[in-house]
UniProtKB/TrEMBL annotation, chain A:
The keyword Kinase does not apply. Residues 5-85 form the Acyl-CoA dehydrogenase/oxidase N-terminal domain. The keyword Oxidoreductase applies. InterPro entries: AcylCo_DH-like_C, AcylCo_DH/oxidase_C, AcylCoA_DH/ox_N, AcylCoA_DH/ox_N_sf, AcylCoA_DH/oxidase_NM_dom_sf. GO terms for molecular function: acyl-CoA dehydrogenase activity; flavin adenine dinucleotide binding. It comes from Sphingobium indicum BiD32. Keywords: FAD, Flavoprotein, Oxidoreductase. Belongs to the acyl-CoA dehydrogenase family. PANTHER family: ACYL-COA DEHYDROGENASE, ACYL-COA DEHYDROGENASE FADE28. This is Acyl-CoA dehydrogenase domain protein. Its cofactor is FAD. Residues 182-300 form the Acyl-CoA dehydrogenase/oxidase C-terminal domain. Gene3D superfamilies: Acyl-CoA dehydrogenase/oxidase, N-terminal domain, Butyryl-CoA Dehydrogenase, subunit A, domain 3.
TrEMBL record, chain B:
One of its GO terms (molecular function) is flavin adenine dinucleotide binding. Belongs to the acyl-CoA dehydrogenase family. Residues 227-381 form the Acyl-CoA dehydrogenase/oxidase C-terminal domain. Residues 3-118 form the Acyl-CoA dehydrogenase/oxidase N-terminal domain. Residues 121-215 form the Acyl-CoA oxidase/dehydrogenase middle domain. This is Acyl-CoA dehydrogenase domain protein. GO terms for cellular component: plasma membrane.
Amino acid sequence: MSMTRAELQDAAAKAFDGNLTPDAAHSWNLIADMGWLMMAVPEEQGGLGLGRAAAGVIHQALGRTLVAGPAIAQMLVIEALSAAGGQDELLGRAMAGEVMTASLADGLSAVPDADRASHVLQVEAGIISLLPVGDLAFTARTTWDGTRRLFDVDAGDAAGIVLATGDAATALASRLSALRSVALAADCLGGADAALAMSIDYLETRRQFDRPLALFQALKHRVADMKTALVAAEALFWARASDTAADAVTMGAMKAHAAGVYRLIAEEAIQLHGGIGLTMEHPCHLFLKRATLNAVLGGDGDHWEEARGRQAMTA
Amino acid sequence: MSEALDSLRQEVRDWLAIHAPKDWRGQSTSEAAFLELQRSWFATLAKAGYAVPHWPENWPGGGRSLAQQKVIYEEFARADTPRLLLSFMSTYHAASTLFEWGSEEQKQRYIPRILEGEIWCQGFSEPGAGSDLAALRTRAERKGDVYVVNGQKLWSTMGQFADQCLLLVRTSSEGVKQAGLTYLLLDLKAPGVTARPIHQIHGDEEFAEIFLDNVEIPVADRLGEEGQGWAVAQSTLSSERGLTLLELSARMRGALWRIGDLIRANGRGEDAGVLRDFGRLASKVDATCAVADQFLANRIAGEERVGDASIVKLAYSRTLREFTSLGLRIGGLEAQYHAPITFGGGMETGNWMADFMNSYAWTIAGGSDEVQRNIIAERLLGMPREPKNWFVKEGAA
């Protein structure tokens, strides 16, 4: 990697300077301008060739400030176009920021920003294709998580540009699943880190019984458990993100682990903030809502933990 | 790089096929058999260069990269070799502390003897100084070229079998309690030393208490300066909390098959709930291994922060509890029937009730989980420390 992880993290932190839920359109332009959409694409296809670990840095940054937009879905389309080969024109447009989206769940459900997209990726058994939106119908599905805009897409009998079939489609579907897990896990870990930092700040500032809440050992120990869970999940994330041999189940289990840690920290953040954490004006709830949505997108914990259990049975 | 690792893995596997002790679990049910097995297995490993892969490269058997160490530990766990419990404190705690604080003369005197099988234990905790270690009261008074030591030490792993002891004593009662501590190397054969085993809840006796009655220790056997003991002790504790856990977490990963076998044997192989719990545990074990790896990589790069080792220890101790707890749960009634323990069998022996009870050794010893949480919150995250003033309800004291 020509750019170190730390350098990329610095650049990402500067771009999204800690203000939560930045404007969606502005964020999208920033993501495209910084070249983040071309991060994982090989250099010979016009990308930066920085791989999955670099994409992980980006999605952590987006998760940390709860950036809206279809970045994860766009990365999946870009991965598919790059893997298919011979799609340089579409690939170039996608890397430049023309919205092309994909499902973050099964079939064509939970498709982010479908109404702004030019194409939707369709992953089916034995065939992966890119459908122009003109032929599609979509229904907006309002989520509790207000930082995401999801749609159910009805493809009818629309035919698109075929990117892979047969064994190639199976292999690509597996790659897309792994990449989706990496991106979602990164989003989880970025959000968890921000929610934890916010909670610690609050405990140090808020005074009750003539002392800062941070003095109470009962609260400090919970914070220590959250920190330990987060550091371990981050270590697992970096080990997996740079492991090119990791399969979809291994990545899915890692994502389930990261989502579990995000949910723990987001839940605890509200409890530790007390009354203010219950209010719409305070951002605590934004983390909890994104955490619970992330937990079900890309296969939920039950699915991946069972799959990982079966895998461990034969190890 | 990965080709070189694959070839190391094969080399270790081939070596283990010939040299790994066979059927030792069935035989290691007496103390004498345990000691014999531990000594002979350590000697075999030392000769082959596998006893101390974590040592620096200028010492025999050392100089292995992190990745190489992991391969070695994983293969040893897979081959189900005895864990080196007897020499654990010697090769980790004693060696790490000597490497960091020992004079050249002290290193040359003690390090080679570790490879020859000399056993070290640690004399830190006391009846009145557990979590509050710095409150220890074992007293050392300097008389000419020796310190005269009086007091009692507790929870010394393998203390009843050890030759040497890493001893933390009080040389002064002035100023803050940490500043009055000094670190000594005690020859346990010295007159006035008595070591007695402590009987633990799962039936083993891995710890001892040590009584010190006018024991003389040469001043030459002091590590660091007088009054520097707390700083030296941090090096020992950091080794315990971080360094040892690369091996132990790799061993835990290598022992996941025990739970897989148990699930199959009890006909739960298609029970989705059980499979999920197993999968969740496997991810936690993976995360524990990853955080231990990351800790060591940072340590080698000189980027270790105060509290990092506590995170590794807390992650390991809680995961080990979950590991043994899942085994105990799936083991059902069968796991409640008493079975003789395997001395030195490691943390995951498949004797589930014994393993579960033994997991407390890691949530309490070496700084309890609660102490680690304090360190993480106060030292790593910078949250405020406990206030000093307090009172006890009338009649409670």
